[in-house]
Amino acid sequence: MHSVHFTAETSSNGVVERDFTLGEVSGVLWSPASGSGRAPLVLMGHGGGTHKKAPAMAGRAHRLVTGCGFHVAVIDAPGHGDRPRTAYDEQEIAVMQQAMAAGESVGPIVVRYNGHLAERAVPEWRATLDALQGLPEIGPDGPVGYFGLNMGTAIGVPLTAIEPRITAAIFGLHWPEALAETAKRITIPIEFALQWDDEHIPRESGLALFDAFASKEKTLHANAGAHKELPRFEVDSAVRFFARHLGLSHIEGA
Amino acid sequence: MHSVHFTAETSSNGVVERDFTLGEVSGVLWSPASGSGRAPLVLMGHGGGTHKKAPAMAGRAHRLVTGCGFHVAVIDAPGHGDRPRTAYDEQEIAVMQQAMAAGESVGPIVVRYNGHLAERAVPEWRATLDALQGLPEIGPDGPVGYFGLNMGTAIGVPLTAIEPRITAAIFGLHWPEALAETAKRITIPIEFALQWDDEHIPRESGLALFDAFASKEKTLHANAGAHKELPRFEVDSAVRFFARHLGLSHIEGA
Hints:
The structure is a homodimer.
Chain A: E1 5-12, E2 15-22, E3 25-32, E4 41-45, H1 55-68, E5 71-75, H2 87-101, H3 107-132, E6 144-148, H4 151-162, E7 166-172, H5 180-183, E8 190-195, H6 203-212, E9 218-223, H7 234-246
Parallel strand pairs in A: 4-5, 4-6, 6-7, 7-8, 8-9
Antiparallel strand pairs in A: 1-2, 2-3, 3-5
Helix pairs in contact in A: 1-7, 3-4
Keywords (chains A, B): Hydrolase
Protein name (chains A, B): Alpha/beta hydrolase family protein
GO molecular function (chains A, B): hydrolase activity
């Protein structure tokens, strides 16, 4: 097992941000600035075309760290952020951009390309989790959650299906075609986000993916609005969901 | 305009509970024990066959009072709680019980009977709101929300459609047949609860009622489980929804 290599550290508003690498993988770990005891870990997957420190990632991480005292880790997906694109990445991105420019449906291309990225990303996530659990402030036995929408769901569903250390997850905003069969093997508590007026993902498709999870506790949050209009207040639900399932850490005294 | 007549007062855990009557209507008003300034008001509608002080009502009221500093009012629906049943009430209840005993669908009966109750209840709610706004701790201009599931939705949707003082509402767990056309006239922020495995309300029917609201901000919370298995954690969402839309009162200092 390899260790994470910390390359930079900053701190703001009670949150320590540490960049790390693990072999070819670049990541970031957000942690409470105070407190030395162990705390739960949330893995977050970013969306397609963005990266580990995109505003949505940093914003959600700060809420989970300051609200619950958790650690939050994000790694750049293959071909994203600090990581190089392969010739195949370039080709699929070009196809996607052509479809968008032509006003055609990007769904089939996203489903295919995200499925490919998930095959590369799942083993990276498992190695990252191994390494993060080697840190004394996380440890090998603490609760682990996963939070990823869009491409973060395409990677997170197959990861969660084979990773027993993940015990609660938030998914959403994806098509069911490549994921529904895998979702049927997932039984942990799930929160699932869907945009009721999504211009890319048909409503029935989003509902079908939510329906596929075998979890006894699963909650759909469907909001009026287009694909990119997920309301900001959903992060409040995410914080409460993980607090409920991973437990508040020592930071909150709970 | 008539005034509410307070008939009993108790206090526990920072919450004052006052029974009241307004003509033939029996109700209860829960308020913060401390604080003399004005605070927002949430009207809550109880479910069919229950009453103003059913555990779900008292539990939600305590959370809204202690969490947000709000006032919460519930009135017994016609034929419920302290209020007499008419011959028509008795007849419809008998038909419903026969259908349940025979294992038949109760949906059409509930839709019809709740529609009838709503016609009686809506003017009672409006008179109650008039009277409650005459109290100095509520006042004529403060924010007003409505929170009612099951029969509370059958009464609350037509009430909200004609009552401009209600500016945010939580509905759910009902059929669309008698309500969808009315819901199309409602534009205020809505949270809507649905049980994904409801044995009484077909999934498509619940989704159709949510879809009908014209609100720009509306959120569906669909949870795995049967009709009566709405998770307790949904009350946390309700508290945050009303805090967001009605504003926290002086109690929270926000």
